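User: Predict Alpha-1 2-mannosidase's structure from this.
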Amino acid sequence: MQTRLKFIFAGILLSLLLPADSNAFAQVAANQQNDPANLVSPNIGGIGQLLTATVPYVQYPHGMARLAPITTPGINDRYLADKIYGFPAGPATLMASTGAIVTSQEVYASDFDHDFEVSTPYYYEADLQTWGIKAELTATKHAAYYRFTFPSNAHSHLAITLPSDAHLAVIGDHAVQGSERIYGPISGKAEQGGETREYFYAEFSRPFHSWQTWHDNALSHNAQEEGDHIGFVSDDATTQGEKVEVRIGLSYISVEQARKNLEQEIPSWTFEQVKENTKAVWNHTLDGIQVSGGTKKQRTIFYTALYRSLGRMTDITEDGRYFSGYDHKVHNADGHDFYVDDGTWDTFRSLHPLQLLLDPAQQEDMIRSYLRMYEQSGWLPSFPSIAGEQAVMIGHHADEFILDAYEKGYRDFDVQEAYAAMRKNATETTMLPWQRGPLTSLDRVYFEKGFFPALAYGEKETVPQVTGERRQAVSVTIENSYDDWCVAQLAKALGKNADAAYFTKLAHNYQNVFNPAIDFMAPKSADGKWVAHFDPKLGGGQGGRDYFTEVNSWLYTFGVQHDVAGLIHLFGGRDKFNAKLDQLFVEQYGTSKYQFLGQFPDATGLIGMYAQGNEPSFHIPYLYDFSGQPWKTQRRVRQIMNVWYGDGPLGIPGDDDGGETSSWYVFSAMGFYPVCPGSPVYEIGSPIFAKTVIRLADGKNFTVTANHVSAQNKYIQSATLNGQPLDKPWFRQSDIANGGTLTLEMGDKPNLHWGSAVEDAPPSMSAPMQTAQQ
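Assistant:
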């Protein structure tokens, strides 16, 4: 995608310099047959099942300018908010109003109604009903573009507010610039060794003849303000229907760079042209996957999910340079863009593999970005933000991200450095949840005894590094054993045989927390004894966090993504494994659903104990492919898509987590999924479209054709891959790297024989690729 987007960006830049009627490039893109950008409904998920609703961003794919109305503070379900408080201007908030001049953002707020709203990836429009003003916005990579249509009023305003540690300056009679400090994500305090600031430069399409600034509610005519709660407001008469536009350049480097970004990307007052160009970018990008068939609702859900899968990570490269929050310096990008804003506990599972499928060069730059962060900070981050590492959740899952690209043949990064970074994280920093620091006594138990220890029954916490997130001991063991497998695989590829053997041993540590007496993953205390009185369903306290990460043992028992064959062996074979997996989807709560969700609020999107609203579940429906019953995978993935994904504000089963939950749908709707990122294979599910064409790099296509597919015809009867019979419920990256076709014959009854033999199972650590091919 990166190569294709560089071409389209060049065309758009040229079009900005031409008259609007010469913008043939945007016109051609707008007239595409499918026009997928107009199928996207950004308000899907605007009411959250748990913590975070989706945001209807207008932006370029992976763009730095991410724009959406700022709605009523405290109403987390954004779709239900009653007011718009303003619009993003980088670190500032921009708002239009009429009437008296005030210094309160709350007073400038306006009622709005979704029935008078237009929301797309490239354009947003709302009526500010309190003021009788129409607000419109669009975006480029580093700039925002607003258009406000005013009523006739003697006192019409455009206000810019900044809440804290900010600078603001009025430039002549047509521009305002400023900045605000971004505080470190871990402590909320000043970062070590420097500061991170976000800058903006805003130009107005008409001069402001009367204006004021404020500081702490005191109005003045100071051309510069500094500190907390500062702002600017213009005050001019407008005629009925008068349009005032505001163009805003953004930067993390300097206010001068913000102005330069604006001049490069929006050099003239051409709102409609910029809007159409951004639409063309989205049509071109979303056209990277073309689907035929299905219902309009399914296509809307699909393209909205794809749009959400292409926002994260954020490219903060500006004019060949970037600011790093890891050493607080500006660096040359050297031809490779710099990306931040990731959360690998979420995104390694399907978001990065999806992006890799569409644009491997861009993913290589993302890995290069991780390695730059490692060089600048000494650690490979897990949740990098613009201001530095967030150290959120558990595991070191940049390992999976890096290995997945390497194993799929994309290696345009320093592999030796990547290995050194992975090895350092694996051996020198604690595994404790939400931590980044030296090894603790708990980590040493993992290395020496093969599991991360839980507190014994009744034991009080004495390890000072354990925070309110508690130990999450079983999940930490399982997820770090997967990380260790990734380190082992890359060590093996690089000929580091001693390391490969060492980390392969650690990769088996998940076996040490499987209790065969109960057939569940279970906690052990440091003395190696099973924790007494453990309840696989309700054990672990709030969120299960004594033992697990947000969910319970019913889910984490199936959390061994790198060695499903080994997990099946622990259960005593396929029959017992399948019986347990069947039970997962019907097991009830052991108490009332109200009480269960009170303890496990993250377990949204429930089907039995299965929780589609939380990432540890995502691979589980595909495990039947490993255990000889792929028709059950086909049934379950269809059920999950039908039940838990919709085209309205409640259409996301849990937190979307920057597109991860959406990326699961994109893969599953296409008919396959990567159970184990780091292993270059995909497991087959049940597509919902008659035809899906994925545009690969270098102009090649991979096509999934599902003959006779329908709501009832969800079961695979037979398959061919590139014209050859396919009897296995999986295929390799190498099968699609040069383009090809997967053809599935669909029917309304399960084929109990297709893909069910032991030798048909996908590869695992205990049954590697060579064995699986025999």
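The two ends are 36 Å apart (CA to CA).
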